[in-house]
Amino acid sequence: MKGVVQVRSGLPRSAAEERLLNEHFKALLAADERIEPLDWMPEGYRHFLIRQIAQHAHSEIIGMQPEAAWLTRAPTLHRKAALLAKVQDEAGHGLYLYSAAETLGVDRADLLDALHNGRQQYSATFNYPALTWADTGAIAWLTDGAAVVNQVRLRDTSYGPYARAVRRICQEEAFHVRLGYDTLLALCRGTAEQQEMAQEAVNRWWIPAVALMFGPPDTADAHADARTSAIGAAMTRRSMTWGIKRNTNDELRQRFVDNCVPQAERLGVTLPDPAIRWNQDREHYDFTPVTWKVFRDALAGGSQGSRRLAHRVAVHQEGAWVRAAVNAFAGRREAVRAPS
Ligand code: BYC
User: What is the pLDDT of residues 108-125, one digit of tens each?
Assistant: First the structure.
């Protein structure tokens, strides 16, 4: 079926042609084939993808900050080397994703502008502070653990460049989760003070992970802003019809909790939710539902939002000379290659 209809968007077309292209797009989705950059796609699909991939990329690069703050204070050389590799991986994830977004016809500089001006969002998870070394463990175990659960399903997402970027990201995230678990395990096997440090970090990162990494609840409740939740539900439905999302937010959240409980038991930490218990009938762990109130409180709960963005903007400005050098080099290479 591939290659039958490959068009550049933006060309004027008749309604009949549009219908044909739309039918072909739907047939590709139904056959579970990937949509590639030169395939025709509905504008809504393109916009939805740009929004999600950009938000994803922004989260990766802003998400470097809480852990990076501990690079100069890592307890050993090995811990520092591993954390450095992890933080650099997050930068790489941002790069894969900005590249994937660019295949949809947007410019990386514009996306970064939108992040810096607050027109596009990043995950509010990373507005929470990393107060002790143990937070690096909790972030990697819980937020990367949540990211893996979410993104393993995005490997099958319908847009080819996004799916391929996510596949690579997942391999690296799996290492991050192990690293976080290992960092916490060392503390949990240490002194009473170290165990307490691990527990407090888990207490701090549980809600940002369980509430924010999976997005809002699937259904409206008494605390839902009716308009937002209706729009959210409609967007989830469209996203699933388009094969972008493969599971609902709450399905993935449940999978995450089911993964975490036995791991927490092995670590010897308590997940800060008294409602967690095995439910034999459902064959899942029960936990306090992430209602709209829980979600909104978590969105507002991080204290570092303005600091994260200000730091990001300052780093971008400091890096202007690197971008100028790269552009100058590319220009020189073009000039050398151009026939005289
Ligand atoms: N924070 O869009 P909706 C990582 C907003 S980083 C702030 O329907 P959806 C890592 C949302 O913008 C990778 N706002 O949510 C890096 C919208 O508001 P507007 C993170 C949020 O699509 C470093 C409104 O709520 N992973 O792994 O159902 C170190 C309605 O939400 C958040 C991805 O990005 C939030 N968290 O679900 C460690 C994966 N959530 O725009 C680790 C790809 C929602 O209407 N992304 N809002 O004003 C996704 O799967 C989905 O976009 C999300 C959100 C699950 C994040």
Answer: 999 999 999 999 999 999
Residue from 55, 196, 209, 29 nearest 121 by CA: 55
Range of the domain at 45: 32-303
| Tens-place pLDDT, residues 263-311 | 999 999 999 999 999 999 999 999 999 999 999 999 999 999 999 999 9
Binding pocket residue ranges, ligand 1, CB within 6 Å? 52, 55-56, 59-60, 63, 90, 121, 123-125, 139, 143-144, 147, 150-151, 212, 214-216, 232, 235-236, 249, 299
Q: Let me know if residue 231 belongs to a domain.
A: yes
Residues 179 and 328 reside in one and the same domain: no
pTM reported for the whole predicted model: 0.93
